[in-house]
Amino acid sequence: MHEIPKGANIGLATLSEDTGSIQVALRWTDPSGTGEADVSVLLLDANGKVRSDEDFYFYNNPASADGSVQVLGSMPTADGSEDRISLDLTAIPAGIERIVVAASRYGSAPFGELEDLRLVLADATGEPLLGFSIDDASVETAFVFGEIYRRYGEWKFRAVGQGYHSGLAGLATDYGINVTEDEPEGEPQAAAPEPAEDLIPSQTAPSEAQDDAPRVPEQAESAQTAPRQRRVRIAKKKVTLPSSPKKSLAENESWRSARLFPVPQLKSDREREVRATSVLLSVMAQVPEFGRRLTAGFNAPAGAMETFVETSFTYGETTVRPDGVIRASRAGKIWTALVETKTNGNPLKDEQVQSYMDIAARRGYEAVVTLSNDVALPGSPLVNVKVDGRRKHKVALWHLSWAEVVHQAQMLVRHEGVANPAHAWLLQELLHYLQHENSGCHGFQNMGTAWVPLRNAISEGTLVRGDKQAMEVVESWERLIQQVSLRLGGELGEKVSPVRTKRGTDPQVRRAELADRLVDNGQLHAEIHIESTVGTFAITADLRTGKLRTSIEVPTPEQGYPLAWAKRLVRQLAEAPADLHVETLLADDQGVGPRGTLEKLRPEPGDLLPKGSAQIKGFRLSLSKTMGNTRGSTESGFIRSVDTAVDRFHSHVITHLGLTTPRRGAQHTSPTAD
Predict the structure, then answer these.
(1) 485-505 per-position pLDDT tens digit
(2) How far is CA 525 from CA 20, 32, 209, 443, 541, in A?
(3) Is the pLDDT of residue 584 over 80?
(4) Local structure of 9: helix, strand or coil
(5) Is the CB of residue 650 less than 8 Å from the CB of residue 659?
(6) Residues 621/654, Cβ–Cβ less than 8 Å
(7) Separation CA 413–CA 424 (nearest Å)
């Protein structure tokens, strides 16, 4: 991958023969695990301005009508996540000369709080072509990372790294859009910031030709030109369905509602695979929002979609039949992906997927998509396939777990909504099918063959560092936590993601360290971040004691008195389980102070206060329960016990604490003094 310094530029054709479609990824890390930023793309004409508001793409306007620009959102990576943008340069309108790629933070949060700011440009298959790092961020609340621009019929990239104090509003205003963010209901709207003095000039760039010199946005509009008005957070009303079913007209409980996708008669794995593939692909084709949600991460165009099942292809002297085919068309171009499906925990087969990769390459198809109950991990492929490097045409291999499919359907039908009421009903029928016990589409459900031997080795004291079984269990644990995050996020309607404690580390190296810790202390530990919640939700499985511990740390407010904090905390936990354990956290690395169960603390909250002059920085709340013994997801299984522990802690503890982060236009709430 070619590294480019700030201010430099390079022709895309010098990096690859195939740059008609590219991906741009923006990355950053945050030590607290709570940092976020919003990605945006602006299409500029020869005057350095957008032609209209529709040339501004962001979280509320993520894709162009012709599919040339797609803001894909956050995607998991080995180091956490990144925000990706897909650009089809062959479809960019002729009047567009520059494509600006930027990011902004909400409110006054500066980019200086984030680390490892970086842009990576890749080809359509995801192969990285160039990278650009920003290492001088401080008080800026918005950044132009880079721009792709035309020069004599060729597309080039320039590393910009320009910062703004005024966030999204100031950045967009300089390019011809006046952005006004939504305020809480009943509150006055703040005036749009002045962009002229907010622009932070970039450092002196290397000498370049005059034609390639960066064009600085104009500092003020003409007095005769009224700025365009855009309320970026206004969206059309969409249809969602209630999470609880409406009252039934059935005479008794033995009556069952008629279903579009019935499942009770499915008997064999083959029947489950055929039915699941057909059901999913048909709904993807009929509900555009859902089809786009699942294929956007595969760099598919935002065009008309058709899906097919049981297609046949000649492979050598035999005939192979992928489970399905997805085709999307836009502007005369057709994007094609072969689909291989597994249900009921059956593993993907290397040779089968290899044959589909070969067929796709020979026919000029873009991708092979695998679907199974398993969850893909960075650095740990589910199948081993070989790619013929002599072929110019590259085929991308993507994976979806059934848990991801359920998550995306829940987000649309329960929280974000779809445009058509019939489409909402279709998604609800799909969810009913996927979540039925006979469908075989239940996500990750098995901790693997190493689970029982490893637990026995821990109990007997014979487990040693370097044991392969420990690494296998760590990978299974990571898959389980990823699935727990998807399930909880789908139920809450917000982003829930695992916290990577070792950012920038090779995934296998990080897992080896976790495996060593498992050998040393017999514990599996993970943290997940819920977007609207301050702090991280910790989950610890102690294989020596057979206990699961869920916990969260509650920070103290900036004002008030310790006794008032303790009283309010206990009052907020009025509905929490009596066996909830509360610990007082002391400042200045003084460790843990007084502790006790909620049952004992309710009559005397003051028992949480430390003696002497020790300062309180927060409280740790935790619940413990016995974990399942078996490796599966049955009633006595480990996976079921983790799901139950997470649900119990979130619903009985976290939801009552008011630990919400300040959403856009909302006020931050936390335990405060009386």
Answers:
(1) 999 999 988 888 888 765 556
(2) 44, 17, 54, 21, 6
(3) yes
(4) strand
(5) no
(6) no
(7) 6
